[in-house]
Amino acid sequence: MTPITRYSPQLDRLLPQTAALLKITRWQVHPGVLRVVLIGSRGLDGHPRPDSDIDLSLIVDPAMLPPAEPEREQFLRAVIETTLNSWQSPVEVDVAAPFGSPDALRMFSVRDYNAALVSTCAPQIGLYKLQKGFSGYVPAEMLDWRKVYPLLTIWERSAESV
After folding, report:
1. Could you tell me if residue 138 is left (phi over 0), alpha (psi between -120 and 50 degrees) or otherwise beta?
2. What average pLDDT does this structure show over 91-120?
3. Position 160 pLDDT exceeds 60
4. Per-residue CA distances from 116 to 112, 113, 140, 146, 162 (Å)
5. Is residue 61 one of the residues assigned to a domain?
6. Domain span at residue 119?
7. Residue at 95 is within a domain
8. Which pLDDT belongs to residue 158?
9. Which CB contacts under 8 angstroms, 24+ apart, belong to 44-49?
10. Does 37 reside within a domain?
């Protein structure tokens, strides 16, 4: 498991309050996570309430994702449980695990919504979630990708953390 202790420099500059919250939080990511993306009201969307959670997407490394069930679902569950079980913060976390082809995952590398990019990539993306009354794969018809944006990458796996 990888403890998250260093964040993107953009986080401090763009979202100092969220950065301060995350810096006092102790948490880890599964080795299958390529990067962590912040969305929602504590992200670039802005305007959190005091009781707002932190919305994180754990972008799954396509090279590590098992090709078939039940191993795939077990892997995705472990990705999310690693973060949920290690999360130590006064602020609740809401975690999702997007997965797909490397080309499709580029959708999570751009800050603002791009309809052409989303229409190309989204059909190749899956989403796994374990909380807030839901457990398992999120059906494609339930996904509104516009709500993911704007997004900010706050952590990326580097050569040192592999």
Report:
1. beta
2. 96
3. no
4. 12, 9, 17, 12, 33
5. yes
6. 2-157
7. yes
8. 83
9. 44/14, 44/15, 44/111, 44/150, 44/151, 44/152, 45/150, 48/17, 48/18
10. yes
Tell me the CA distances in angstroms from 92 to 19, 77, 85, one per residue in order.
Answer: 15, 18, 12
Domain count, the chain: 1
**pTM for this model (two decimals):** 0.94
Do the domain assignments include residue 56? Answer: yes
d(CA 36, CA 32) in angstroms, rounded, equals: 11
Q: What is the three-class DSSP state of 122?
A: helix
pLDDT reading at 119 higher than 70: yes
Q: Is 158 exposed, middle or buried (0-12, 13-18, 19+ CB in 10 A)?
A: exposed
Bridge-partner residues for 54, per DSSP?
Answer: 93
For residue 39, name the pLDDT band (cuts at 50, 70, 90): very high
Q: Which residues contact 10 (CB under 8 A, 6 or more apart)?
A: 152, 153
Confidence of residue 47 (pLDDT cuts 50, 70, 90): confident
Residues in the chain: 162
Residue 162 has pLDDT above 50, yes or no: no
Report whether pLDDT(154) > 70. Answer: yes
